[in-house]
Write a structure and sequence with these properties.
Elements (H helix, E strand, L loop, with lengths): L2 E5 L5 E6 L2 H4 L5 H14 L59 H17 L3 E4 L9 H10 L5 E5 L4 H7 L5 E5 L5 H6 L2 E5 H11 L1
Parallel strand pairs: 1-3, 3-6, 4-5, 4-6
Antiparallel strand pairs: 1-2
Helix pairs in contact: 2-3, 4-5
């Protein structure tokens, strides 16, 4: 089992924790990780892009000049793609980009992402993360104590003081254990997790 240090909010090591190898010590499956990220990005796409083809552009019904004898190339419509204000060749139409991954694939991808963070020493465990009030300055101090800038902070429950204090920090994102996803785990340089959140992750995904 991988063993990681547990820090307090002052950045001092206060304990150690053994992580479950079934989640934090699996063989990394890069293909599944790639597919999970691709799925999340694809599912977030609106798919509302639209342009008009030559049959949809208004006008162009009349032939601009006669077929022969003008010295010009023959033209059938002023709305053909080569004309200004003409239609678009192979114009994009609204479509659904989303696709599905099954539950086992999603879990395996998340385990792979978490394992890679632990292996790279970019997984920090906090004994607790509690703030008495909504104060961004105090939250930033905690991040500085941990020597962390761009981080995903995983909480076990909905702690309004911590979440709202972190809202004004552009390089930090907070998430609860049920919101964990591969894209966020990989996007941020460091994953900061409370001790309680680690236990919940191990119970849910083991």
């Amino acid at each position: 089992m991988a063993k990681v240090a547990v820090y307090n909010m002052e950045g001092k090591e206060v304990d150690s924790l053994e992580l479950n190898d079934a989640i934090f010590g699996v063989e990394v499956n890069e293909h599944l990780v790639h597919m999970a990220v691709l799925q999340q990005l694809a599912n977030n796409r609106q798919g509302t892009q639209k342009a008009k083809t030559r049959s949809e552009v208004r006008g162009g019904g009349r032939k601009p000049w006669r077929q022969k004898g003008t010295g010009h190339a023959r033209q059938g419509s002023t709305r053909a793609p080569q004309w200004t204000h003409g239609g678009v060749v192979f114009a994009p139409v609204p479509r659904d980009y989303s696709f599905k991954l099954n539950k086992k694939e999603k879990r395996a991808a998340l385990k792979s992402a978490l394992t890679s963070r632990v292996a790279e020493n970019k997984f920090i465990v906090l004994d607790e993360l509690k703030l008495d009030e909504i104060k961004t300055k105090k939250f930033v101090e905690v991040m500085k104590n941990l020597k962390v800038e761009k981080a995903l902070v995983v909480l076990n429950d909905m702690d309004v003081n911590v979440i709202k204090s972190a809202d004004n920090v552009p390089t930090v994102k907070t998430a609860q254990t049920n919101e964990l996803n591969v894209f966020d785990v990989l996007k941020y340089d460091t994953v900061v997790v409370t001790k309680d959140a680690v236990k919940t992750i191990e119970e849910v995904y083991a």
